[in-house]
Design goal:
By secondary structure, the protein is mainly alpha-helical. Helices cover 61% and strands 0% of the residues. It contains ten helices and no strands. Helix 2 packs across helix 3 and helix 8 crosses helix 9.
């Protein structure tokens, strides 16, 4: 499979005029591939977040030039399914990936090329687990954001909540944060508060009694919230 839009190893790691694409751009495009392929595979939001985190953590430990990022991404999806108990078949990941890279192409036949790609994903498993030191279970901001949204919904008046898509926007911002690997740089609570704060700012929604409060609402959430 050859990657599209200059976003992976080999042809995928090249930008205009054959020059190496910037690493941030490559990782962004591979994260987009993980999300789109995972959605087509029917994965839930937490396994998708785990797949993106596994991919990002792997390349925090090794060079982008050492491995094909799209192969690592495919195994990240496979491993995330195992970790989050949403198991996927290797052949399904391969077929969805092939369709992503070749939208107008025919499905891969069960030939030597298919078996070679399948074996590559399987062989990648031990390498990645060793690089990650078998630490492939992560906490995500999702549970915090859900808690904050429920609290905010009960706090705001019903009309303010219904006329602005704060929740939809906050979830979209959280999903987009996985393009940049913020999950490895900041605490879960802080990411959840940040996307909610930005969503409120976008629509100009004010939190009731914030002026009279001793602390801003976001500071209360980031210091006092602990959700099992």
């Amino acid at each position: 499979m050859e990657a599209r839009e200059g976003g992976g190893a080999g042809p995928a790691a090249r930008g205009p005029e054959g020059q190496p694409a910037p690493k941030a751009r490559v990782h962004f495009r591979v994260a987009r591939f993980i999300m789109e392929a995972s959605v087509k595979l029917g994965m839930r939001s937490i396994p998708i977040a785990t797949a993106c985190t596994i991919y990002r953590k792997f390349f925090c430990e090794t060079s982008l030039d050492a491995c094909d990022p799209y192969l690592i991404a495919m195994f990240s999806i496979y491993l995330a399914g195992k970790v989050e108990e949403q198991h996927l078949q290797t052949r399904d990941i391969i077929n969805v990936s092939n369709k992503y890279f070749n939208p107008s192409g025919e499905p891969l036949e069960l030939d030597s090329r298919f078996r070679e790609l399948r074996d590559s994903i399987v062989q990648c498993q031990l390498l990645m687990l060793r690089v990650l030191r078998f630490q492939v279970s992560f906490q995500h901001p999702h549970k915090y954001l859900l808690h904050y949204l429920v609290s905010l919904k009960n706090w705001l008046n019903r009309h303010s909540w219904q006329r602005t898509p704060v929740a939809v926007t906050a979830w979209a911002l959280l999903r987009d944060s996985y393009h940049r690997g913020l999950c490895l740089r900041f605490q879960d609570q802080h990411i959840a508060v940040a996307v909610l704060y930005l969503a409120l700012q976008v629509y100009g929604v004010e939190v009731p009694a914030e002026v009279e409060a001793e602390k801003p609402w976001w500071q209360i959430y980031t210091t006092d919230t602990e959700i099992p």
